[in-house]
């Protein structure tokens, strides 16, 4: 839970940082496309934006396991939002719970068609499915037969 009490926010704003103690995403465990892989870390500045709005700005880091759309293998993906910003209605209860909004905003930032080599945490990762279906083999065969035909012409000239 990422919460703050209004009474704790001084005029200059409040810094809160930490990590969620439980899974805030509650995704279907059978979903192989995306699963959370650890707590969400947050480092936020909460301030009164006037007009009954509170502003949260800062950094969010959330680790996930995604499934590559090309090779279908799971791979680690860390979502880092360095310039996160969201505003919230000042709650009448005096307690602001940002968990649901942050959950939604993080899920929106996950790539829709993730590739393990392009999006994953490992920059050296080569997707085992890369280049598998680009037709290289048939082009090579055509090339060979063209050379064979040239050889045949040379034989005929000599
Ligand atoms: Zn892949």
Overview of the molecule:
By secondary structure, this protein is an alpha+beta fold. It has one domain (3-129). Helices cover 23% and strands 35% of the residues. It has helices at residues 99-108, 116-119, 136-157; strands at 3-5, 14-19, 34-36, 41-50, 53-67, 74-89, 95-97. 13% of the residues are buried. Residues 68, 70-71, 73, 115-116, 127, 129 line the site of zinc ion (ZN).
Gist of the model:
The protein is an alpha+beta fold. It is built from 3 helices and 7 strands; from the N terminus they run βββββββααα.
Compute the CA-based radius of gyration: 26 Å
Number of domains: 1
Low-confidence stretches: 135-143
What kind of sheet is the major sheet?
Answer: 5 strands, antiparallel
The span between the termini is 85 Å
Question: What is the residue-mean pLDDT, rounded to a whole number?
Answer: 87
Walk me through the topology.
Blueprint: E1 3-5, E2 14-19, E3 34-36, E4 41-50, E5 53-67, E6 74-89, E7 95-97, H1 99-108, H2 116-119, H3 136-157
Antiparallel strand pairs: 1-7, 2-4, 3-5, 4-5, 5-6
The structure holds zinc ion.
């Amino acid at each position: 839970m990422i919460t703050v009490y209004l009474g704790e926010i001084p005029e200059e704003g409040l810094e809160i940082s930490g990590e969620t103690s439980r899974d805030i995403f509650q995704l279907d465990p059978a979903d192989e496309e995306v699963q959370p892989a650890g707590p969400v870390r947050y480092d936020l500045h909460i301030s009164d934006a006037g007009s009954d709005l509170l502003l949260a700005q800062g950094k969010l880091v959330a680790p996930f396991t995604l499934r590559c759309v090309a090779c279908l293998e799971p791979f680690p993906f860390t979502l880092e939002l360095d310039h996160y910003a969201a505003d919230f209605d000042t709650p009448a209860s005096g307690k602001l719970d940002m968990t649901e909004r942050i959950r939604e905003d993080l899920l929106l930032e996950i790539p829709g068609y993730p590739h393990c080599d392009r999006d994953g945490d490992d920059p050296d990762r080569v997707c085992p499915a890369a280049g598998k279906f680009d037709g290289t083999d048939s082009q090579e065969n055509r090339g060979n037969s063209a050379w064979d035909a040239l050889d045949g012409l040379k034989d005929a000239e000599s």
